[in-house]
Amino acid sequence: MTQPKVTKTDKEWREQLTPAEYAVLRKAGTERPFTGEYTDTKTTGVYSCRACGVELFRSDTKFESHCGWPSFYAPSDAQNVVLIEDRALGMRRVEVRCANCDSHLGHVFHGEGYGTPTDDRFCINSISLTLEPTE
């Protein structure tokens, strides 16, 4: 199901999101490791963008990476995320953004040896997500 693209002013985002959510989702911040709501959850369900609600990941692709943030080996639909080269902080990484509202979600890393089907680790801030448990 395709959702219409979400475009809001900075003022509208600030009104919708808490200051911590705004710092991560709109300013590409990072929550502290091992503090996020979904880091260790094993709940079965669907993870969506906290800013716009588009589906991003499913719990069956979530795995234990012990990195301090929820890790997934693939998005539920590759069209729902955008991957952007990130050279900030003197590192070369790939940023993951929501394709629907352009919110920052985290980063993706490849070839770290976790033994996942894709050999990818989508390292996502809990604060960028909501979890809808399945029955």
Automatic annotation (TrEMBL):
Its domain of life reads Bacteria
EC assignment:
1.8.4.12
Which intervals hold domain MsrB? 10-134
Keyword terms, alphabetized = Oxidoreductase
Recorded catalytic reaction(s): these are:
L-methionyl-[protein] + [thioredoxin]-disulfide + H2O = L-methionyl-(R)-S-oxide-[protein] + [thioredoxin]-dithiol
Decide whether keyword Mitochondrion is in the record. no
Checking Pfam families in the record gives: SelR
Q: Which PANTHER family match?
A: METHIONINE SULFOXIDE REDUCTASE, METHIONINE-R-SULFOXIDE REDUCTASE B1
Q: What is this protein called?
A: peptide-methionine (R)-S-oxide reductase
- Tell me the organism: Fodinicola feengrottensis
